Amino acid sequence: VVQTWHGTPLGRFGTGLTETLYADHQHLATLAHRSAQWSVLVSPSRFATPLLRRSLAYGGEVLEAGSPANDVLCAPDREKTAEEIRRTLGVPEDHRVVLYAPTYRDHLAHPPSASRDAPDRTAPGPYRWDPALDPHALARSLGPGHTVLVRRHPRVTGGVRNGPGVLDVSGHPSAAGLLLIADVLVTDYAGLMFDFALTGRPMLFHTYDLEHYRDTVRGFCLDFETRAPGPLLVTTDEVAQALHGLGAVAARHADAYESFRRDYCDLDDGGAAGRVADRLLADRA
């Protein structure tokens, strides 16, 4: 059994949530049993390895291979793939693509599912969609030549209506594919920031509830305020202004961006899936 996880973490998770207000202690009590079933845990970065071990209560083999899901971001034919995804979504070739992809908020959870068919009855139910950023106002501010793509976290219910310059792409099967076509990422505390850093393209952080998220809701696995590879912004207007002056914003954060990639994105080079396959085949040699 190979556990590929889903990326490098920013927010605390697993056992790191034990002392937090919204910890699900029933779920946490099952972690050691679950992780004992894994043969190998695939780590996306050297930074992530000790976090995954500790937070998932895992004592077995770790393969530091990078993230197989991110291979597409480093592939030689990534531009061709991006063109195909744009065409599938109906995004004009000449549009600048702004991807808005926030994470969920623990305090916005619906009650746990009572369904007998639920795959994990101890896990929190889906989270409510309650964004503080207005994608339609953002699209109006940016004007023609821009498309704002909105991707909800998979565990969030609700959504945004499509409109002029705004397209809900939450149903797209590949998060990495959306990152591939984005010219700029607007997020908050989503782990997608580590994946998007592989593109070298600008990131903006809509951190309207930073203190609450940091001190009460979940907290971080690193000093986010110091290490963020882009500006921390509060309002939709601030995000729009940063997008209007994106070149200057990117230049101001170039050093932070480079050090972020060096420290947290050290293993992804397009060959992660191959390394995982090699490890699996080695058992059969």
Give the termini distance in whole angstroms. 17 Å
The CATH superfamily name of the largest domain is CDP-glycerol glycerophosphotransferase, C-terminal domain
Average pLDDT value?
94
> Strand order of the main beta sheet, please?
8-6-4-9-10-11
Q: How many strands in all?
A: 11
Oligomer: single chain
Instruction: Count up the helices.
Output: 14
Radius of gyration: 19 Å
Provide the number of structural domains: 2
Major beta-sheet overview: 6 strands, parallel
CATH-defined fold name of the largest domain: Rossmann fold
Give unreliable regions as ranges. Answer: 114-122
CATH architecture of the largest domain: 3-Layer(aba) Sandwich
How do the SSEs run, as a string of H and E?
EHHEHEHHEEHEEEHEHEHHEHHHH
Helix percentage = 25-40%
Which structural category fits the helices and strands?
alpha/beta
Gross morphology = globular
Q: What is the percentage of strand-forming residues?
A: 5-15%
